[in-house]
Specification:
This protein is of the alpha/beta class and 294 residues long. Helices cover 34% and strands 16% of the residues. It contains ten helices and eight strands. It is globular, with a radius of gyration of 18 Å.
Protein backbone atom coordinates (compact mmCIF):
# COMPACT_ATOMS: atom_id res chain seq x y z
CA UNK A 1 0.00 0.00 0.00
CA UNK A 2 2.68 2.48 1.06
CA UNK A 3 5.70 2.49 -1.24
CA UNK A 4 7.46 5.61 0.08
CA UNK A 5 7.55 7.69 3.25
CA UNK A 6 8.62 11.24 3.95
CA UNK A 7 9.70 12.25 7.43
CA UNK A 8 7.80 15.38 8.43
CA UNK A 9 6.61 18.22 6.24
CA UNK A 10 8.51 21.49 5.65
CA UNK A 11 10.66 21.28 8.77
CA UNK A 12 12.42 24.51 7.77
CA UNK A 13 9.10 26.38 7.81
CA UNK A 14 7.84 27.77 11.11
CA UNK A 15 4.30 26.72 10.24
CA UNK A 16 5.38 23.10 10.63
CA UNK A 17 8.39 22.99 12.99
CA UNK A 18 8.95 25.01 16.14
CA UNK A 19 12.32 26.69 15.57
CA UNK A 20 12.32 28.21 19.05
CA UNK A 21 12.43 24.69 20.49
CA UNK A 22 14.96 23.52 17.89
CA UNK A 23 16.74 26.55 16.38
CA UNK A 24 19.54 24.57 14.70
CA UNK A 25 17.38 21.58 13.66
CA UNK A 26 19.56 19.17 15.64
CA UNK A 27 16.51 17.60 17.24
CA UNK A 28 14.85 17.26 13.85
CA UNK A 29 17.95 15.60 12.40
CA UNK A 30 18.13 13.18 15.33
CA UNK A 31 14.46 12.33 14.91
CA UNK A 32 14.88 11.65 11.18
CA UNK A 33 17.95 9.47 11.78
CA UNK A 34 16.20 7.27 14.32
CA UNK A 35 13.00 7.02 12.27
CA UNK A 36 14.77 6.28 8.97
CA UNK A 37 16.80 3.49 10.54
CA UNK A 38 13.68 2.02 12.10
CA UNK A 39 11.71 2.12 8.85
CA UNK A 40 14.60 0.53 6.97
CA UNK A 41 14.71 -2.31 9.48
CA UNK A 42 10.96 -2.89 9.37
CA UNK A 43 10.30 -2.34 5.63
CA UNK A 44 13.56 -2.17 3.63
CA UNK A 45 11.67 -2.03 0.31
CA UNK A 46 10.02 1.31 1.20
CA UNK A 47 11.67 4.47 -0.18
CA UNK A 48 12.69 6.90 2.59
CA UNK A 49 12.61 10.63 1.79
CA UNK A 50 13.59 13.72 3.78
CA UNK A 51 10.38 15.69 4.26
CA UNK A 52 9.94 18.33 1.57
CA UNK A 53 11.49 21.67 2.49
CA UNK A 54 9.95 25.08 1.89
CA UNK A 55 11.67 27.39 1.19
CA UNK A 56 14.13 25.52 -1.02
CA UNK A 57 17.36 26.04 0.89
CA UNK A 58 20.66 24.28 0.05
CA UNK A 59 22.09 25.34 3.42
CA UNK A 60 19.38 23.34 5.19
CA UNK A 61 20.25 20.22 3.17
CA UNK A 62 23.95 20.71 3.93
CA UNK A 63 23.11 20.96 7.61
CA UNK A 64 21.10 17.72 7.45
CA UNK A 65 24.08 16.04 5.77
CA UNK A 66 26.47 17.32 8.45
CA UNK A 67 24.15 16.03 11.19
CA UNK A 68 23.97 12.60 9.51
CA UNK A 69 20.23 12.85 8.83
CA UNK A 70 20.64 11.82 5.18
CA UNK A 71 22.64 8.67 5.86
CA UNK A 72 19.66 6.28 5.77
CA UNK A 73 17.56 8.15 3.20
CA UNK A 74 16.98 7.46 -0.48
CA UNK A 75 15.90 10.93 -1.62
CA UNK A 76 15.26 14.49 -0.45
CA UNK A 77 12.12 16.52 -1.04
CA UNK A 78 11.57 20.15 -2.01
CA UNK A 79 8.29 22.09 -2.21
CA UNK A 80 7.71 25.13 -4.38
CA UNK A 81 4.93 27.69 -4.93
CA UNK A 82 6.55 30.47 -6.97
CA UNK A 83 3.27 32.03 -8.16
CA UNK A 84 1.97 32.34 -4.61
CA UNK A 85 4.58 32.44 -1.82
CA UNK A 86 8.15 31.96 -3.02
CA UNK A 87 10.40 34.88 -3.92
CA UNK A 88 11.56 33.45 -7.25
CA UNK A 89 9.93 33.18 -10.69
CA UNK A 90 8.21 30.06 -11.98
CA UNK A 91 10.79 29.54 -14.72
CA UNK A 92 13.53 29.20 -12.07
CA UNK A 93 12.44 25.66 -11.15
CA UNK A 94 15.43 24.03 -12.93
CA UNK A 95 17.85 26.28 -11.03
CA UNK A 96 16.15 25.51 -7.70
CA UNK A 97 16.50 21.77 -8.34
CA UNK A 98 20.12 22.17 -9.40
CA UNK A 99 20.91 24.05 -6.15
CA UNK A 100 19.87 21.01 -4.13
CA UNK A 101 21.54 18.52 -6.46
CA UNK A 102 24.78 20.44 -5.92
CA UNK A 103 24.81 19.67 -2.17
CA UNK A 104 23.61 16.04 -2.09
CA UNK A 105 23.98 12.98 -4.31
CA UNK A 106 20.47 11.86 -3.37
CA UNK A 107 17.68 12.19 -5.94
CA UNK A 108 15.51 15.29 -5.54
CA UNK A 109 11.76 14.75 -5.34
CA UNK A 110 9.06 17.44 -5.55
CA UNK A 111 6.38 16.03 -3.22
CA UNK A 112 4.41 19.29 -3.29
CA UNK A 113 4.04 21.91 -6.00
CA UNK A 114 0.99 23.93 -6.84
CA UNK A 115 -0.70 27.18 -7.86
CA UNK A 116 -3.67 28.86 -6.21
CA UNK A 117 -6.72 29.95 -8.18
CA UNK A 118 -7.25 32.74 -5.61
CA UNK A 119 -6.85 35.47 -8.23
CA UNK A 120 -8.13 33.63 -11.29
CA UNK A 121 -8.52 30.04 -12.44
CA UNK A 122 -6.61 30.98 -15.58
CA UNK A 123 -3.50 31.58 -13.45
CA UNK A 124 -3.69 28.08 -11.99
CA UNK A 125 -4.33 26.60 -15.44
CA UNK A 126 -1.24 28.32 -16.84
CA UNK A 127 0.81 27.41 -13.77
CA UNK A 128 0.03 23.73 -14.11
CA UNK A 129 1.03 23.66 -17.78
CA UNK A 130 4.25 25.57 -17.21
CA UNK A 131 5.20 23.56 -14.11
CA UNK A 132 4.66 20.29 -15.96
CA UNK A 133 6.89 21.46 -18.82
CA UNK A 134 9.66 22.41 -16.37
CA UNK A 135 9.59 19.41 -14.03
CA UNK A 136 8.30 16.33 -15.84
CA UNK A 137 11.36 14.34 -16.86
CA UNK A 138 13.59 16.58 -14.72
CA UNK A 139 12.91 14.96 -11.33
CA UNK A 140 11.85 11.39 -10.51
CA UNK A 141 8.70 12.29 -8.56
CA UNK A 142 6.20 15.18 -8.61
CA UNK A 143 2.97 15.55 -6.64
CA UNK A 144 0.60 18.40 -7.50
CA UNK A 145 -0.95 20.15 -4.51
CA UNK A 146 -3.82 19.56 -4.34
CA UNK A 147 -6.97 17.75 -5.43
CA UNK A 148 -9.47 19.74 -3.32
CA UNK A 149 -9.73 23.32 -2.17
CA UNK A 150 -9.47 23.67 1.60
CA UNK A 151 -13.00 24.09 3.03
CA UNK A 152 -13.64 27.67 4.11
CA UNK A 153 -14.81 26.49 7.52
CA UNK A 154 -11.39 24.98 8.27
CA UNK A 155 -8.13 26.74 9.03
CA UNK A 156 -4.96 26.50 6.98
CA UNK A 157 -2.05 24.93 8.87
CA UNK A 158 -0.02 28.03 9.64
CA UNK A 159 1.36 29.70 12.75
CA UNK A 160 1.50 33.21 11.36
CA UNK A 161 -1.95 33.84 9.87
CA UNK A 162 -2.01 37.46 11.02
CA UNK A 163 1.27 38.23 9.25
CA UNK A 164 0.29 36.68 5.92
CA UNK A 165 -2.47 39.02 4.85
CA UNK A 166 -4.05 37.97 1.56
CA UNK A 167 -1.40 35.26 1.16
CA UNK A 168 -3.15 33.29 3.89
CA UNK A 169 -6.29 32.97 1.77
CA UNK A 170 -4.36 31.47 -1.14
CA UNK A 171 -4.17 28.30 0.95
CA UNK A 172 -7.88 27.77 0.41
CA UNK A 173 -7.76 27.73 -3.41
CA UNK A 174 -4.99 25.24 -4.25
CA UNK A 175 -7.27 22.44 -5.44
CA UNK A 176 -8.08 21.22 -8.92
CA UNK A 177 -11.60 20.90 -7.51
CA UNK A 178 -13.60 23.51 -5.63
CA UNK A 179 -14.76 22.81 -2.09
CA UNK A 180 -18.06 21.43 -3.44
CA UNK A 181 -16.20 18.99 -5.71
CA UNK A 182 -16.82 20.74 -9.02
CA UNK A 183 -13.78 20.91 -11.35
CA UNK A 184 -11.80 24.04 -12.17
CA UNK A 185 -10.14 24.79 -15.50
CA UNK A 186 -6.91 23.05 -14.51
CA UNK A 187 -8.74 19.81 -13.68
CA UNK A 188 -9.78 19.46 -17.29
CA UNK A 189 -6.18 19.17 -18.48
CA UNK A 190 -4.60 17.30 -15.57
CA UNK A 191 -4.99 13.91 -17.25
CA UNK A 192 -2.45 15.10 -19.84
CA UNK A 193 0.27 14.82 -17.18
CA UNK A 194 -0.73 11.59 -15.47
CA UNK A 195 0.40 9.03 -14.50
CA UNK A 196 3.83 10.73 -14.35
CA UNK A 197 2.47 13.54 -12.17
CA UNK A 198 0.91 12.53 -8.88
CA UNK A 199 -1.43 14.30 -6.47
CA UNK A 200 -0.78 15.47 -2.92
CA UNK A 201 -4.03 15.46 -0.93
CA UNK A 202 -4.08 15.72 2.85
CA UNK A 203 -7.02 13.84 4.34
CA UNK A 204 -8.12 15.13 7.73
CA UNK A 205 -9.33 12.80 10.47
CA UNK A 206 -12.57 11.17 9.26
CA UNK A 207 -12.45 13.32 6.13
CA UNK A 208 -15.81 13.26 4.36
CA UNK A 209 -14.15 13.68 0.95
CA UNK A 210 -12.24 10.39 0.92
CA UNK A 211 -14.50 8.26 -1.29
CA UNK A 212 -15.19 11.07 -3.78
CA UNK A 213 -11.46 11.79 -3.90
CA UNK A 214 -10.69 8.21 -4.90
CA UNK A 215 -13.21 8.50 -7.72
CA UNK A 216 -11.61 11.70 -8.99
CA UNK A 217 -8.09 10.25 -8.77
CA UNK A 218 -9.21 7.38 -11.00
CA UNK A 219 -10.93 9.76 -13.42
CA UNK A 220 -7.79 11.92 -13.71
CA UNK A 221 -5.54 8.91 -14.33
CA UNK A 222 -3.54 9.44 -11.13
CA UNK A 223 -1.35 6.55 -9.98
CA UNK A 224 0.86 8.26 -7.37
CA UNK A 225 -0.73 9.80 -4.26
CA UNK A 226 0.92 11.59 -1.37
CA UNK A 227 -0.97 12.03 1.88
CA UNK A 228 -0.27 12.36 5.59
CA UNK A 229 -0.47 9.91 8.48
CA UNK A 230 -0.58 12.10 11.57
CA UNK A 231 1.14 10.91 14.72
CA UNK A 232 -1.18 13.20 16.69
CA UNK A 233 -4.27 11.67 15.05
CA UNK A 234 -3.01 8.17 15.91
CA UNK A 235 -3.70 8.96 19.57
CA UNK A 236 -7.34 9.93 18.93
CA UNK A 237 -10.15 7.58 19.95
CA UNK A 238 -11.01 5.12 17.16
CA UNK A 239 -7.91 6.11 15.17
CA UNK A 240 -7.16 2.57 13.98
CA UNK A 241 -10.52 2.34 12.24
CA UNK A 242 -9.96 5.65 10.41
CA UNK A 243 -6.35 4.91 9.44
CA UNK A 244 -7.33 1.44 8.17
CA UNK A 245 -10.19 2.90 6.14
CA UNK A 246 -8.09 5.69 4.61
CA UNK A 247 -5.15 3.52 3.65
CA UNK A 248 -7.46 0.79 2.33
CA UNK A 249 -9.29 3.32 0.14
CA UNK A 250 -5.94 4.31 -1.40
CA UNK A 251 -4.74 0.74 -1.84
CA UNK A 252 -4.82 0.84 -5.65
CA UNK A 253 -2.40 3.80 -5.79
CA UNK A 254 1.33 4.15 -5.17
CA UNK A 255 1.16 5.96 -1.83
CA UNK A 256 3.78 8.24 -0.33
CA UNK A 257 2.92 8.71 3.34
CA UNK A 258 4.17 11.71 5.27
CA UNK A 259 4.66 11.09 8.99
CA UNK A 260 4.27 14.31 10.97
CA UNK A 261 2.49 16.27 13.72
CA UNK A 262 3.60 15.68 17.29
CA UNK A 263 0.88 14.81 19.84
CA UNK A 264 0.71 17.47 22.55
CA UNK A 265 1.57 14.88 25.20
CA UNK A 266 4.77 13.89 23.34
CA UNK A 267 6.19 17.32 22.50
CA UNK A 268 8.80 19.40 24.28
CA UNK A 269 6.09 22.02 23.91
CA UNK A 270 2.41 20.95 23.74
CA UNK A 271 2.01 21.73 20.03
CA UNK A 272 1.98 19.63 16.86
CA UNK A 273 5.02 21.51 15.50
CA UNK A 274 7.20 20.75 18.52
CA UNK A 275 10.13 18.36 18.45
CA UNK A 276 9.25 15.26 20.48
CA UNK A 277 10.83 14.73 23.86
CA UNK A 278 11.90 11.25 22.76
CA UNK A 279 12.76 10.74 19.06
CA UNK A 280 12.28 7.00 19.51
CA UNK A 281 8.58 7.58 20.14
CA UNK A 282 8.22 9.07 16.66
CA UNK A 283 10.22 6.17 15.24
CA UNK A 284 7.90 3.72 17.01
CA UNK A 285 4.91 5.38 15.33
CA UNK A 286 6.62 5.10 11.93
CA UNK A 287 7.36 1.41 12.51
CA UNK A 288 3.74 0.75 13.50
CA UNK A 289 2.56 2.39 10.27
CA UNK A 290 4.99 0.24 8.29
CA UNK A 291 3.89 -2.91 10.09
CA UNK A 292 0.24 -2.21 9.31
CA UNK A 293 0.41 -0.66 5.85
CA UNK A 294 3.68 -1.41 4.04
Amino acid sequence: MIEAVTFWNEANNKSHWDMEVDPEWRLYADMVKVAAQAVRAQAPHVTRVLGGISPIDPAFIRRMHEFGALDDLDAVGVHGFPLDWNLWPLDSWPERIAEIEAVTPLPVWVPEVGVSSFGAEEVQDFGLRRTASLLLGRVPRIHWYSLYDLPQAWEATTRHKEAEGSSYYRHFHMGLLREDGTPKMAARQFHEYTPEMGICQWFHFEDHRLDDAVGWLRRLGVRKVRTGLSWADWLRPDSERWFDRMVSALDEFEVTATFCFTPECEGIQPHHTSAPREPQRFADFCVEMMRRYA
